[in-house]
Amino acid sequence: AAGPPHGPSVARAAARAVLEDAARLDPPLVLDYLALVDPSDFTEIPDAYEGEAILAVAAKVGTTRLIDNIRLTFGAPRPETTDHRSATATDASTTEATSSGATSPGAPTTPQGPLGATR
């Protein structure tokens, strides 16, 4: 079972693809672990999982160990709200870019960082 079209299996595959590309660089990225886990108990989530998850990565580049994580939500989108505290990072970057004149309102933005990279 591959799971939903935008579910955990897709997130894992995208992360692996980026990390495999980085492993071919000089110096190469050497993966310690890639885990997509339930934030309540840090167990791996199944492909049919819905709800919040954490994508966690640890790797080395040369002698430097890199550790990072990002929260992801799978399943139905959260309801829209006017409360600014519940805005997502994408909402904030879109607002920032729009207010600086970098993009026009409604223009799509590309997430920054290795998981936002396109192949």
TrEMBL record:
Q: Quick one: where's region Disordered?
A: 74-119
Domain of life where this protein originates: Bacteria
Q: Name one GO molecular function term.
A: pantoate-beta-alanine ligase activity
- Keyword annotations: Ligase
List all Low complexity biased stretches.
87-110
- Keyword Transcription regulation among record annotations: no
Q: Which GO terms describe its biological process?
A: pantothenate biosynthetic process
| Name the UniProt record assigns to this protein | Pantoate--beta-alanine ligase
Q: Which organism is it from?
A: Streptomyces inhibens
